Amino acid sequence: MDRSLRPGDPSFVGGHRILTRLGAGGMGVVYLGRTDSGALSAVKVIRAEYALDGDFRARFRREADAARRVDCPWVVRVTGADPDAARPWLATVFEPGPSLAEAVGRHGPLPARAVRVLGKTLARALAAVHAAGLVHRDVKPGNILLAADGPRLIDFGIARSLDATALTSAGMVVGTPGFLSPEQATGDGDRIGPAGDVFSLGCVLAYAATGRPPFGGGTVDALLYRTVHDEPDLDGLDEELAGVLRRCLAKDPDDRPAPAELDTALVEDVPSGTAGWLPAAVVRMVADRSAEMLSLPEIGATILEGPVRDRGPSRRRFLATVSGGAAVLAVGGGAAARAGLGGGTGKHASAGPGWAIGVQADLSGPGKAVGRAQEQGAQIAVEEFNALFGRPFTLHVKTSDDEGRSDRAAAAAERLADDADVLAVIGSSTDATTQAALPVYDAALLPVLGMSAGQNLVRNVRSFVRGRPLHNTVAMSLGFQLEATSAATSVGVLLDRSGGDASWMTIQMVNLVVRQYGDATHPRVVPAGTTDLTPVLTEMRSAGIEAFVYAGPVDGAIRAARGLADFTGPKYAAEPALDARFAAEPAAAGWTVVASAIGPGAAGVRSFAQAFRERHGRAPGFWAAEGYDAAKLLIRQLVATGGKRPARKALIGPLQKATYRGITRDFAFDQRTGQPTLTTPASFVHQVLDGGFHYLGPAPDKAPQPRTA
């Protein structure tokens, strides 16, 4: 998020001079404040609408008083609060260290000893919080800071309890999916208590030790289901630590240890007042964050005495004109020159070397066709920009290959994050690699625009914008397309577990749409790794299905096509089948694939496709046009800075608020949900014909009219 102060932000709160924003949420805004003595505080100011609620103020007062009683070196200390202020506020000691999420995302899992130290200190933190009559409810890696003298639990009691009492009702989930307890996942308010914090701490320690949440990733629904029903993934842990965490992660709250028991069970000496228990790379992060405090603005730096006057040269007025009409740049170099942007000399005054857009993608692994297409599309956009007369800077594309592997994604992201030239990133090209890379980019406050990752990956991530719809939105369009074009009243739907959560979401949504029309589905599931689909396909056909939907990886789609070669009903496949290997399969002829990627034959893409052919000697692949749109959108944001090299974090807020008419779709990012979404068209329909894909047009984004008898 953009951390700079805004016109409506206060200058002072309860004796704290406000320096900058630290974050914002549904309940209020957290600021970095400095007292007259120079002490730094995190100051949470409640939104005005809650301040008008007398019951809210009473709860705030009770819980602020309880929070003051928490006495533990591993919990951030409350330094002040005023429940009776016009806008109630609460201040805690400010800790500059990185979060556990940032440290693990950037440098990987912690050693076993460090995990045990972390567990013991946080168990003591929870014991103190519970002794004060509070329940944290949101113990997660992002709420654990790694300070020079040990970890700190933050955002305890007040934020979660206030949110729970003010905003929730029976059955509503409170907490962060992936790190909340089964009783939180089911909304069982009668059982939510201190034991839930212990479950969450078990999730945190498993994440710290393995680099992955114990119940996986993916959509909220899938995470909640696995939290309630599945066993945690503790592979790779030593048996002693795994045994302790299994007790913490028991489904029944009564079976979990109390924090004091957990402290005893984790046998390890806790270092006093040092960060030596952490890996050296993380210790450097802690030191770097502490050093950043030396460059904080002075007390007077946040005072605005009056309007800022532009004393720059006339060139700045030219740049303002360009940024104000930046959509002109999006149509390409020739159109821009005809519009009068050229200076006539072919020269430009660069604002300095090193303006670059990064592309993180699978460039050499199994999904390299998608990754390379996005990189090539972005490169064409940058070349068009660099061909403009009078451009304010020269732009470059820098790539980082993660090979489509989630275990290499963080390192690939780190290469771009550590390159000072890179101001924004497109990527990564898969769900898993994007999820693994985001903590690195978020820690660097480096804006990221994702074009092909369709899982719900945004959870307390400040720097990510998704330029495509979620998988379940595409799946809904698949269901609408089926109902709009087929008279089938019995639809076979096959979920291949090899496709992970995206396939699960597809089948769930298709089931929902088809059944809403009064038609029947015949759902079947095959385990991950299944190579022989003949038995299940034979059974589905014997049940009298009239249409078929497959959701799984491209290899499985090829097997399904071969197994249904003589099936004459309509056949549909989810987005992973949008692959040249599937189209080349003779048995796939006639299959329909609904995906977020547009076809190169679409009318709005033709000019780009021609430029691509001139550059590469062939037609663009799927996702190239999306890469082009992503780069154009980022270029527009860079131009809007007026030719002055921007800080990375200064681009995040404008990018999240941007609207943009691209060649693939109209982009608009909805800030109400905190998870940027997208305007229409969201999905596109492709049909296999003559060994390739034939573009049919946008998929329906609304339910078609019910069929009449």
Automatic annotation (TrEMBL):
ATP binds at residue 44. PROSITE patterns: PROTEIN_KINASE_ATP (PS00107), PROTEIN_KINASE_DOM (PS50011), PROTEIN_KINASE_ST (PS00108). It holds the Pfam family Pkinase. InterPro entries: Kinase-like_dom_sf (IPR011009), Leu-bd (IPR028081), Peripla_BP_I (IPR028082), Prot_kinase_dom (IPR000719), Protein_kinase_ATP_BS (IPR017441), Ser/Thr_kinase_AS (IPR008271). GO terms for molecular function: ATP binding; protein serine/threonine kinase activity. It comes from the Bacteria. Keywords: ATP-binding, Kinase, Nucleotide-binding, Serine/threonine-protein kinase, Signal, Transferase. Residues 16-266 form the Protein kinase domain. Belongs to the leucine-binding protein family. This is Serine/threonine protein kinase. It comes from Streptomyces shenzhenensis.
